[in-house]
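Subject: sequence -> structure tokens, single chain

Hey, anyone have a minute? Need the predicted structure for the following. Not urgent.
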Amino acid sequence: MAAETASRLTQAARACLLAEGYANLSTRRVADHAGVPLSQIHYHFGGKQGLVLALLAAENEKLVARQDAMYAGDTPLSARYDQACDFLDDDLASGYVRVLQEMIAAGWSDSAVAEQIIALLRAWIDVLRRVLSEAERDLGGLGPFSAEDVALLVGMAFLGGESVLLLGDDHWSTAVRRALRRVGDLIRLAERS
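Reply:
Had a minute. Here:
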């Protein structure tokens, strides 16, 4: 029963967060949406911040596992990277990117939130670092960059791109998607040599 209540609360928080943003998120509205007393939020999560961080951590864990599984495949790296670009659209549609960006913004003024968000982001960079170590080995080096350097650059390109995509400008959205996909073209060139 407790796990079911916690799950109902995180799903209600997700719906409310997507509709209202973190700054306007009301724990009372979340509890009403979940059909449980407000006290259950405090009992299960300690408050609004804990609730949203639990939601984000659960979503992040699933998506990092998805990336790990996809990159563990034996298709060419360029095809796996293209799939990662496709996943970006899925993650935008699911609301994950919005929740992540809302919590990054909350972390700017709350060091406890920042610490947890950084840990979540490190999980993504760790996946990329493993993939780039493979690329470095298979493709013969990454020029002056280490696998970690390129992992950070790719990760930050996606993170910044997500911020721009959330703003909803068609021109910038098209440019961001095109630029991210061109990295796949660069990988294909390296695979051919």
